[in-house]
Amino acid sequence: MGSFLMLIMMIAAGSGSSSPEISKHSILHINLDGSIEERAQGKSLIDELQGIQNNSIPLNDLIKSIRHAATDSKIDGIYLECNGGSAGTATLAYVAEELAKFKESGKWIVAYGDAYSQGNYYLASVADSLWLNPIGNIDIHGLGGSTPYFKGLLDKLGVEAQVIKVGTYKSAVEPYIMTGPSEANIQQIKAYINPIWDYIKDGIATGRNVDSETVNQWADSIIATQNPATFASRNVVSS
Question: What is the arithmetic mean of pLDDT over 217-232?
Answer without folding.
Answer: 60
